[in-house]
Amino acid sequence: MTAALSDLTPLGSGKVRDLYEIDDKHLLIVASDRISAFDWVLPTPIPDKGRVLTALSMWWFDRIADIAPNHVVAVDDSRIPAAVRGSAMVVRRLAMVQVECVGRGYLAGTGMKDYQATGRICGIELPPGLTDGSKLPEPIFTPATKSAVGTHDENVGFGVVEAQVGSATAAELRRLTLAVYGRGVEIAARRGIILADTKCEFGYDDAGTLTIGDEVLTPDSSRFWPADQWQPGRAQPSYDKQFVRDWLANKSDWDRSSPPPELPDEVAAATRQRYIDAYELITGLKFADWMS
Ligand code: PZK
Question: Does the pTM exceed 0.90?
Answer without folding.
Answer: yes
